[in-house]
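Ticket 4471: requesting a sanity check on a complex prediction with FE2/S2 (inorganic) cluster. Repro inputs:
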Amino acid sequence: MSSPTITRTGSSHRIGESAPRPDGIPKARGEFAFSSDLWAERMLWGATLRSPHPSARILSIDISAALAMPGVATVLTAEDVPGLSSFGLEHADQPVLASDVVRYQGEAIALVAADHPDTARKAVAAIRVEYETMAPLSDPRIALDATPIHPEGNLVRHLVIRHGDLDVEGEVQVEGSYEIGMQDQAFLGPESGMAIPTEDGGVELMISTQWLHVDRDQVAACLDLPVDKVHLTLAGVGGAFGAREDVSMQVHLCMLALRTGRPVKMVYSREESFFGHVHRHPAQLWYRHHADRNGRIVKVECRLLFDGGAYRSSSAAVIANAACFSMGPYLVPNAHVDATVVRTNNPTCGAMRGFGAVQTCFAHEAQMDKLADALGMDRIELRLLNALEPGHELITGQVITGTAPVAEVIRTLAAHPLPPAPDSITDSRLLPGGTGRTTDYSDVKRGIGFAVGFKNLCFSEGFDDFSTARVRVDGGIATVKCACAEVGQGFVTLAQQITTEILGVERVDLAPADTSIGSAGSTSASRQTWMSGGAVHAAATAVRDTLIARVARDEGVDITVLELVDGVVRSLDGTINISIVELTTAEPVEEEIEFHHAPTDELDENGQGNAHVSFAFSAHRAVTDVDPELGLVRLVDIATSQEVGRVLNPLQLTGQLEGGTAQGIGLALMEEIIVDESRVRNPSFTDYLIPTMLDLPDLQIAAIIEEPEPGAPFGAKGVGEAPTISSTPAVVAALRNATGLALTRVPVRPEHIALSADHLDD
Amino acid sequence: MSDLVSYRLNVNGQDRTVADGRLGESLLYVLRERLGLAGAKNACEQGECGSCSVMVDDELVCSCLVLAASAEGRDIRTIESLAPEGELSYVQQAFVDAGAVQCGFCTPGLIVSVHDLLERQPDATDIEVREALSGNLCRCTGYGRILEAVRIAAAERLADGSESRA
Ligand code: FES
Ligand code: FES
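Returned structure tokens:
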């Protein structure tokens, strides 16, 4: 792709420019403090005892040997939890520390604080727990008939969408079953943080998270402290992708710090990280598409079964998303969706980039290809014929009132030139299998795949979604305060750009993100550009209005004749010219705004309702080379078109598209937490593979479609998730195209290709 | 606890004393927790991600796999040595300019690796760069801007004709 314009220097960048990240230089110098870099005088190291069993009764816990070890400051169990014994993102159903039963492998049972991480680890190993193991509930298909593994039962949520005439039949019908493996977010910065007891009996927690306030509320409840005694500050976050939306060590760290009266630091190892956070839901999906002879979709039926694992996390919202976006970005007049998420003894699943829409996109795009083939129609033409448009009704009965340039997304991508097919490739790095030199190019088959997807932006289903921001200008320098969690996505850059755009100041500083201001909501659901961007926009606008009002009062003119341009309040006739520096040196201005998006509704018993505020659409086209006999694959080319509302920072947008696409490719080709009888078999980067630089070609950006979204600040849509959704099905469609195999499961492994008897035409 | 040892490490040209260290501590741990050099990162601590990359006697190593005490007497260079206070090396500058930094957790390790690569192979092709850096995982960027940063840095290095750059 062509490189975005790079801006090397300068401090004031406006909307639409490739402003550099304010934290880019410290990060490049290795000086940026991540949560694992925290250090304090007299600090102790925390460690966690985790269950080796996915399902067991705890008969006894003996901490005496651990407690007696030199260097061990404390050992804590469930008895030591001061307040509420459970926590949870939407609903407190997970014990802070297990005391009677464990429901997944890796569930936390006891905590240690010691003078050295090694002492802490040894003390953890010295804790004696007697278990009575039970057969785990491993198969989500039998969960509803099985003995409940939790007092709240094994059903987390069952959701039905009934839309239109469910009796209508299409002349052409295609059916398919699909399966998605469990994906890990695999952020690089391990879970880590530090808690420090405060003089007022409270606690200060520095933590990498996606949502400070929801953590704070859970921590306070479990510690039995008022929220004003629990102060959270965002520590440097090494990526998130959904895995930091749930509490991991937050309560544990605070318990250890309060008990010992000393700062306590904890860092999960990579292995522990696999057990310490939720994953993307594995899913089983069945679809039947009905169309008329001309290719118009008449009806779609589907059944979705998601494995939520041991605890609820955000499963209820994930399944709603999966159901709402189960059709893909197509007009479906009649639909019947039956969606269920259940509890099992498998690892807990929750938020991951794409949030339910990734799973269904894999299935509906495979179905669209099948349908096109059954109709004898071009696959792109079928998608164009059925593409959603503004004014169309979704299967939830919601009419799209915002932008939905689906056809343009499809057309621009389809028009993008394909890579040449060379006569020979001898460099093994460019062949399936790579440097092992296992494949001969003469055996290689090339395939092309295309996929389109969409999902919601911001929180849905009637949730009152808001963010809070404060902008202060003093001596011409603006300071933005917002609790928005910067996890790498670049909100810090946008906050500066938005403030500069509105106030024309030369310098925008960012105050630390903490709980001393109101909530910013989660860095998830592609929502922070809209929500915290919107809050900063509103606060900066309020500052501007205050300045204009002040000048109007002082100069005795009407506010309507004044404007703030390039940092100067001036009158339309040019007689008044006062700089923001002068104005705010005399008297600083500060405004704080809580910004809400338009309200949404809950879904009714038929899954109908205006549940979502906005949608983002994406498409990918993949070209793969496959050695069908060896099952080896090389992704040759990946191209995308995205609609984004409006580009706020081209360079950061490119980064989101490339990074999001890469995670979707990972799910297609290699990424899966292997769970066998509810036990994780590959909790390491040796065995859980994520794409390396050698696995990925340059992303070709065919088009960025800008149609400003009504109601969104600057018309910009969030771009965090959409790129992840359609890349997985595009890659697998290319593999099907190359091999003729059905390939109904991701990730596709070599044996699925090499050993499959499962041909599409069978 | 037993097995406490004291030894000296030469880090970034400075003689540093490690007092009462434990024998099993990795070079990564000692740099980060005992010597206050937290630039090398700890994404896996088992040699799979490259986030802990440092140079030992001009050789690129994963510091999580090196026993700290075994590095006594060797020349250890970390990300902190690449540019004077307040400045950026040409590779660091290229990473910032190209948008190669998102969360930044992989960044110090990658920058150390890119310096090493361009020292050895200033004219590396794209596929050679990809191969050379395939031991450095990044989860945020999809590597596109990182490759671009390497291209920029390589061009800068060539244009400057300086072999002795930081
Ligand atoms: S931390 Fe050393 S290779 Fe990952
Ligand atoms: S920038 Fe986050 S891991 Fe590379």
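Notes from triage: Chain B has a mean pLDDT of 95. Leaving this open until the requester confirms.
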